[in-house]
């Protein structure tokens, strides 16, 4: 799989009925971006709903040293912009094209009109936002409660489940950005995983050798009963 980390969230666009997808598509305007091109900036006040039609979008924040810390990578079928629509919030992350990207943008006035005419549009969006909140709360608790060995392993398992091939195509630098730590820290944890027989590494990615055993080992770090 390619490095598209989206907290395991399903495609919001595909949860809409075919008729509703057609209406959304008819209201939108396609915009095309080249690989690496800036698509949105932190603080942008543009209000609207965006559907990724092809490619992927990397969302993150640039620190004072010019380093982008990746928060998530959304792929085709996923959507963004809900916070600007419902809470009038500015864009909180920079967004960059990963590969050649096409996004269908729907302005707030057009989206609001459709929502009034099609109340069935609301429930899937509320469900998606609730799932995002749940994932972020879990992520925040993991940071406060667990060491990197647990947090990285948990996310590798999630990334493997999302993919269609055994290999997770993420470099150590990718994983370091995702976890908000140094590449050296990630390399040390991966060496430990390799010694335990849980992963093998190769150029451009890694493969989980024993996902079930890996998951069982990670459970020893967890101090809370599952829900």
Sum this structure up briefly:
The protein is of the alpha+beta class. It is built from nine helices and nine strands. The radius of gyration is 19 Å and the shape is globular.
Spell out the blueprint of helices and strands.
Elements: H1 12-15, H2 18-27, E1 29-33, E2 38-40, E3 48-62, E4 68-75, E5 79-80, H3 82-86, E6 94-107, H4 108-117, H5 122-145, H6 148-162, E7 167-168, H7 172-179, H8 183-195, E8 199-202, E9 205-208, H9 211-218
Antiparallel strand pairs: 1-6, 2-6, 3-4, 3-5, 3-6, 7-9, 8-9
Notes on the protein architecture:
It is a single chain. With 227 residues, the chain is α+β, with helices and mostly antiparallel strands. 43% of the residues lie in helices and 25% in strands. The chain is built from 9 helices and 9 strands. The strands form 2 sheets. Strands 1, 2, 3, 4, 5 and 6 form a 6-stranded antiparallel β-sheet that branches. The radius of gyration is 19 Å and the shape is globular. The mean pLDDT is 89.
Low-confidence stretches: none
Largest sheet: 6 strands, antiparallel
Helix content: 40-55%
SSE pattern, N- to C-terminal: HHEEEEEHEHHHEHHEEH
Q: In angstroms, what separates the terminal alpha carbons? A: 28 Å
Spatial extent as radius of gyration? 19 Å
Number of helices: 9
Number of strands: 9
What would the average pLDDT be, to the nearest integer?
Answer: 89
% residues in beta strands = 25-35%
Based on secondary structure, the structural category is alpha+beta
What best-fitting shape do the alpha-carbon axes yield? globular
């Amino acid at each position: 799989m390619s490095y598209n980390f989206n907290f395991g969230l399903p495609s919001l666009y595909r949860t809409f009925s075919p008729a509703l997808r057609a209406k959304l598509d008819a209201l939108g305007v396609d915009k095309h971006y080249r690989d690496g091109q800036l698509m949105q900036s932190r603080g942008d006040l543009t209000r609207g709903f965006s559907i990724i039609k092809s490619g992927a979008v990397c969302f993150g924040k640039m620190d004072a040293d010019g380093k982008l810390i990746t928060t998530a990578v959304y792929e085709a079928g996923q959507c963004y912009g809900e916070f600007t629509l419902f809470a009038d919030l500015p864009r909180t992350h920079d967004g960059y094209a990963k590969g050649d990207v096409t996004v269908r943008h729907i302005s707030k006035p057009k989206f609001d009109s459709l929502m009034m005419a099609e109340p069935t549009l609301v429930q899937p969006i509320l469900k998606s936002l609730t799932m995002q909140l749940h994932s972020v709360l879990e992520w925040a608790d993991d940071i406060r409660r667990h060491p990197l060995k647990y947090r990285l392993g948990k996310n590798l398992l999630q990334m493997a489940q999302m993919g269609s091939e055994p290999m997770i195509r993420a470099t150590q630098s990718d994983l370091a950005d995702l976890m908000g730590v140094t590449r050296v820290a990630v390399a040390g944890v991966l060496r430990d995983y390799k010694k335990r027989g849980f992963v093998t590494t190769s150029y451009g990615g890694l493969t989980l050798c024993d996902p079930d055993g890996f998951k069982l080992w990670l459970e020893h770090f967890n101090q809370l009963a599952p829900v």
